[in-house]
Write a structure and sequence with these properties.
The protein is about 45% helix and about 10% strand. It is α+β, with helices and mostly antiparallel strands. The longest helix has 17 residues, at about 60-80. The radius of gyration is 28 Å and the shape is globular.
């Protein structure tokens, strides 16, 4: 092969010899063949590419993979257009070796589009475009292609659950009328999918289509389906439909036979049933806590509830129960997230009950680690305040349990709104040295997480400033900072501060909703005892919950993900309406009259 390589210009059938060698049983011979192919140029490039592609029909190792990659890089640079292998199996083998950047540069043939759908680096808008292009190539329907993509992913060993969840969200957000032809396949996935993420999404899709809790509950009597239905409620985009499952969830928890993952899922689903069920949910969760069942899940669920729904009369007993359990936990486990969350809950309950001694005892058992989570579709953190001792180290574990991206940025006092407004002028590609987006340079930032996708978590390790004050943590995703923030109180006497200020209070200006409007953000924040001063004029919401432009009443142009979100934000990933300017009367940027502007960027 080396002779053929160096004498290639004198051997008439050199490429034919290399092609045969590329299929030789010996990997050393195949290695020499693919290396030799890299020396060809001009009109010989297409056939030299075939030599490199033939190597992919056989097992490879590190050396062959490296040589194939470099040979393809060289030959493709000499070709006027990207040339992909014709054989499906070889093309599939090639695609699996490509990183996202290399895949992005390939022609959008069927195999490439399918591969892109299975990568987690693409947002929903791009996935939607891939599906439409696949449907055009295959002369089919984008919804049918979406179901096919989910089925393919479900049958693939080692498939990414995060990708399955993202595709599932697209399926759940599909209008009921477009689902009719694929309901048999969705039902099959709901009952027989291998991946829990696929089963959850399929059941959530059936729930959104039928909108009948009793019927879905009856159809999911077996344990696997029941778990998928309950855990899939987080994907259901209509709050009223989620609320309809409250009786089923409470009945499930009342049954002592309900154990393990199903009980845990039911506990976590209770806060999703809305503010109208919050007080009753607190009582159910309180009973679970008293019985010592799924304490970690109960702590997480209870912290998601509006604090106005917490029962002050029972708070002391519940906090005492948390303390009794906390004392039994080995000191080595007290930095674990489950213990930290439970201990935080106990301290909040003790503060609500006005029992400073109980709170002090709980604080003495904990460590300087705080868990802060997002609240599902409410644009708020589940923790409004943390109190730390000045000059001492502490940690924040931030977990995004919402359906959209969020970050957590720790800033100086009274800066959350200023940094939030500055972040709204930034591009998502404007990142700092650590790859973190939406962090304006002209602000002193104590620390910040990356922009976390749903389900991700990140830990911050900080040292409290030596200067006392009400520092702040905030989400700087465009449009979120107005209401999505909390306080990091730095003090020299933590217990003294907590005794004087047992209940957190975040100062917020009040702007009543206009007559005839439904402002879901205002409603959710009002349950926290504070209200949002709207940075944008609200949109008129029709009886069918369709957002409209105030200037012309035209329906808003929104992505599938945006249709399922009940808050007004702007985002390069999820485009949501911000409303027309009251001073100019201009159309909303996402109005059909101005549909060219897909992403809102107003301060």
């Amino acid at each position: 092969m080396r002779v053929v390589c160096y004498q290639r210009d004198r051997i008439p059938n050199a490429l034919a010899l290399l092609k045969a060698a590329a299929n030789d049983p010996s990997p050393r011979v195949r290695l020499e063949a693919v290396r030799a192919a890299s020396f060809f140029n001009g009109p010989d490039v297409p056939k030299a590419l075939e030599v490199a592609y033939d190597v992919l029909k056989h097992d490879t190792d590190y050396y062959l993979d490296y040589c194939v990659k470099e040979t393809l890089r060289q030959l493709q640079s000499l070709s006027k257009e990207k040339v992909l292998p014709a054989e499906p199996a070889v093309l599939a083998a090639l695609i699996t070796r490509m990183d996202d950047k290399e895949l992005e540069a390939q022609p959008e043939v069927e195999a490439v589009l399918v591969a892109k759908l299975q990568r987690k680096s693409y947002d929903l808008a791009k996935r939607d475009r891939f599906l439409k292009e696949l449907a055009r190539l295959r002369n089919s329907d984008p919804v049918a292609e979406l179901v096919t993509a989910i089925k393919t992913l479900d049958g693939k060993d080692g498939a990414d659950a995060a990708v399955a969840t993202e595709l599932g969200k697209m399926l759940v957000a599909t209008p009921a009328a477009r689902l009719e032809k694929v309901i048999p396949q969705v039902t099959e996935l709901a009952k027989n999918a291998r991946m829990p993420a696929v089963s959850r999404a399929a059941w959530a899709t059936l729930i959104m289509k039928d909108r009948k809790a009793d019927d879905v509950w009856a159809a999911s009597a077996d344990g696997k389906s029941r778990l998928a239905v309950v855990s899939g409620l987080a994907l259901v985009t209509d709050p009223a439909v989620r609320a309809a499952f409250y009786p089923q969830l409470t009945a499930l928890l009342a049954d002592v036979k309900t154990k393990g993952p199903v009980r845990k899922a039911a506990i976590l689903a209770l806060p999703l049933t809305g503010a109208q069920n919050a007080e009753a949910s607190f009582k159910v969760l309180a009973n679970e806590l008293k019985e010592g069942r799924e304490r970690a899940a109960v702590a997480g669920a209870m912290m998601q509830l509006p604090r106005t729904s917490w029962d002050k009369a029972s708070a002391g007993d519940l906090a005492q129960g948390v303390l009794n359990y906390a004392k039994s936990v080995d000191a080595k486990r007290r930095a674990d997230q489950d213990f930290v969350e439970l201990n935080q809950l106990g301290m909040e309950l003790a503060s609500l009950a006005g029992n400073s001694g109980l709170r002090k005892e709980l604080r003495s058992l904990g460590v300087s680690v705080f868990v802060i989570k997002t609240v599902h579709e409410q644009l708020r953190f589940d923790t409004q305040r943390i109190v730390v001792e000045k000059g001492k180290p502490f940690e924040i574990l931030f977990e995004n349990t919402d359906v959209m991206p969020h970050n957590l940025v720790v800033v100086e006092p009274d800066q959350h709104l200023n940094i939030g407004m500055a972040a709204m002028t930034m591009s998502p590609n404007d990142k700092d040295k650590k790859g973190r987006a939406y962090l304006p340079k002209n602000f002193k930032i104590l620390d910040a997480t990356h922009m976390l996708e749903p389900g991700q978590k990140e830990k911050l390790q900080l040292k409290a400033p030596d200067k006392e004050g009400n520092y702040e943590f905030v989400c700087t995703f465009p449009g979120h900072a107005m209401i999505m923030w909390g306080q990091v109180v730095v003090t020299g006497d933590v217990e003294g501060y907590l005794q004087a200020n047992p209940v957190p209070h975040l100062p917020m200006a009040t702007m009543p909703a206009r007559s005839g409007e439904v402002n879901q953000v205002d409603q959710s924040i009002a349950h926290q005892g504070r209200r949002w001063q709207r940075p944008f004029p609200p949109l008129v919401i029709s009886s069918r919950s369709q957002l409209s432009c105030r200037a012309c009443s035209a329906p808003e142009v929104r992505s599938a993900r945006a249709r399922s979100t009940s808050v007004f934000v702007s985002s390069p990933r999820y485009s949501l309406p911000a409303g027309p300017s009251p001073s100019t009367g201009r159309h909303s940027p996402s109005c059909r009259a101005n549909a060219s502007s897909a992403t809102v960027r107003e301060s």
